[in-house]
């Protein structure tokens, strides 16, 4: 009988010999085990050797640049006999012939098998993987090669070893360059995260804290990625009339925008202006009256219909165009122009609440002309400490004794959720203020500006005091330093006239006693949580190793 082995004329590059085979006589005494069968190379039409070791250790490195065949197999998912048979069948079905060590088609072939085999295994693709080569010929490589023995002979003895080998295969023909780039980018991002985490741990350790404590990671989701049903609560909260009436009646807020826009007609005259989050359209109408050639007003809430009515009521319907929808979907809104200026009242409680900053910076990056402006230009987030036994008793301690009844869960809520206050008295302010972050709307990063991570804070006691809470607030400058025009600024701090933002109060579980001139040092982080990029997680790390955590939803 005969053993039939597919083989083309050795050394021939002709495609006419694809079906040429020679029959090798088998007298029954010849041992046709591995190492003596005449084996055809998988990757070229050469009868490489009668010896498998020579095929793997001499021919593959010399002819195809494959220095470690076992690692190559592992890298494409071949780790057992069934996948080896599939791989041989797959390659034979392609009638493949790589003629040089630099033949890029070899890498494409390997990539195609890895993707196809992976899709078949996880069910995401159609089962088109051949189980035998084209025709009726059985290839000795399929059934006579013990792939597991081969892998073990290369020092790969366990699944973990095989995976490690697959990842470490350095042969240029075996590595998917694009995939490697992605892997390296992920490693870089991972290292960045580790560096931040390590610096936090070291800092906490130096302060006497627990090195196992970590800051809750910020949300990786963006506002643009929120689905309509996920963002519905936020959008709907701005659809009613009362919230807009409250904002319009805020003289500091609305008057500040009016004073700036009306006082700087040269910044708006004949300009194209975008109003991000227009609400009732009040800022759009201010800009139109200041001489803007066109105002593009964008909002995703239902109130935009009322804004359009207000523009018509004031004879400005031809100067203002209204677009309902998410700003990040501007293509769908068909706002196909560049603007000279962006105005927006995007600030939330503690400045960063609700995540609207991201949308304004998106507008800047995608819609603003070079040399354009964003108003207001500068927003600063600050912290200070207050001493008020009255406020503390009225809120944090009230639930210890509600007409003789203790309601601990409400006390816990008070101590873990910030409180927006509108009645802080100036004489309660017991420390200096500390700048936590300063956002320049023309240069701020859309990714990092909405996050405060482990920022050191120093508050100096103005007198002997007992701190009951830390207070967050922000200041606004419409123009930056050196900008032409009449600047307008306002503050939402406890020493200024109250606004609809109030101040954000973080009650301390244990009040802190300070002497006049004493400095309180701690670190603050303000991050959007994983489950809600419009919310905030606030964390204070104290020098005694304790931590205060708050969530603002």
UniProtKB/TrEMBL annotation:
Listed InterPro entries: Arg_MeTrfase (IPR025799), Methyltransf_25 (IPR041698), PRMT_dom (IPR055135), SAM-dependent_MTases_sf (IPR029063)
BP terms from Gene Ontology: methylation
Catalytic activity from the UniProt record: L-arginyl-[protein] + S-adenosyl-L-methionine = N(omega)-methyl-L-arginyl-[protein] + S-adenosyl-L-homocysteine + H(+)
SUPFAM superfamilies membership: S-adenosyl-L-methionine-dependent methyltransferases
Domain Protein arginine N-methyltransferase positions: 384-543
The keyword Oxidoreductase belongs to this UniProt entry's keyword annotation: no
EC nos: 2.1.1.319
Protein name, entry field: type I protein arginine methyltransferase
Methyltransferase domain sequence ranges: 273-372
Organism name: Macrostomum lignano
Keywords on record: Methyltransferase, S-adenosyl-L-methionine, Transferase
Any one Pfam family match given in the protein's UniProt record, by short name: PRMT_C
PANTHER family, per the entry: PROTEIN ARGININE N-METHYLTRANSFERASE (PTHR11006), PROTEIN ARGININE N-METHYLTRANSFERASE 3 (PTHR11006:SF53)
Enzyme superclass (EC): transferase
GO molecular function: histone methyltransferase activity; protein-arginine omega-N asymmetric methyltransferase activity
């Amino acid at each position: 009988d005969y053993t039939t082995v597919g083989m083309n004329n050795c050394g021939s590059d002709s495609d006419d010999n694809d079906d040429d085979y020679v029959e090798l006589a088998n007298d029954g005494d010849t041992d046709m085990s591995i190492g003596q069968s005449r084996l055809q190379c998988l990757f070229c039409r050469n009868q490489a050797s009668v010896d498998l070791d020579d095929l793997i250790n001499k021919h593959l490195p010399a002819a195809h640049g494959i220095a470690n065949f076992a690692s190559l197999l592992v890298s494409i998912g071949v780790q057992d006999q069934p996948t080896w048979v599939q791989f041989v069948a797959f390659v034979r079905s392609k009638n493949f012939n790589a003629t040089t060590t630099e033949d890029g088609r070899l890498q494409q072939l390997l990539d195609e098998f890895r993707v196809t085999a992976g899709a078949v295994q996880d069910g995401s693709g159609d089962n088109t993987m051949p189980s035998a080569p084209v025709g009726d010929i059985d290839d000795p490589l399929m059934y006579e090669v013990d792939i597991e023995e081969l892998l073990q002979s290369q020092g790969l003895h366990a699944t973990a070893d095989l995976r490690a080998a697959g990842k470490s295969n350095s042969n240029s023909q075996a590595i998917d360059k694009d995939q490697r780039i992605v892997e390296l980018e992920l490693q870089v991002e991972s290292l960045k995260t580790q560096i931040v985490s390590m610096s936090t741990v070291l800092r906490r350790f130096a302060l006497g804290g627990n090195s196992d404590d970590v800051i809750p990671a910020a949300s990786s989701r963006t506002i643009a990625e929120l689905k309509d049903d996920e963002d519905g609560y936020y959008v709907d909260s701005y659809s009613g009339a009362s919230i807009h009436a409250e904002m319009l009646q805020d003289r500091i807020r609305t008057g500040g925008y009016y004073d700036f826009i009306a006082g700087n007609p040269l910044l708006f005259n004949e300009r194209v202006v975008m109003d991000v989050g227009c609400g009732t359209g009040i800022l759009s109408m201010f800009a139109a009256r200041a001489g803007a050639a066109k105002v593009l007003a964008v909002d995703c809430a239902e109130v935009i219909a009322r804004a359009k009515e207000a523009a018509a009521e004031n004879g400005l319907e031809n100067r203002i165009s209204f677009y309902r929808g998410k700003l990040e979907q501007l293509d769908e809104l068909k706002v196909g122009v560049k603007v000279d200026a962006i105005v927006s009242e995007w600030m939330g409680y503690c400045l960063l609440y609700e995540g609207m900053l991201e949308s304004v910076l998106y507008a800047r990056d995608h819609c603003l002309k070079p040399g354009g402006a964003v108003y207001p230009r500068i927003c600063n987030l600050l912290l200070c400490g207050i001493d008020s036994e009255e406020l503390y008793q009225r809120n944090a301690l009230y639930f210890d004794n509600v007409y003789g009844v203790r309601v601990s869960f409400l006390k816990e809520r008070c101590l873990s959720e910030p409180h927006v206050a509108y009645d802080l008295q100036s004489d309660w302010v017991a420390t200096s203020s500390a700048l936590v972050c300063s956002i320049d709307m023309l240069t701020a990063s859309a990714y990092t500006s909405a996050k405060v991570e482990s920022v050191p804070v120093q508050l100096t006691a103005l007198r002997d005091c007992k701190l009951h809470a830390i207070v967050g607030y922000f200041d606004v400058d419409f123009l930056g330093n050196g900008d032409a025009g009449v600047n307008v600024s306002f503050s939402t701090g406890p020493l200024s006239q109250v606004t609809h933002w109030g101040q954000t109060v973080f009650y301390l579980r244990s009040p802190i006693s300070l002497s006049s001139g004493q400095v309180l040092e701690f670190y603050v982080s303000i991050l959007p949580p994983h489950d809600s990029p419009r919310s905030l997680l606030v964390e204070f790390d104290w020098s005694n190793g304790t931590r205060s955590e708050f969530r603002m939803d």
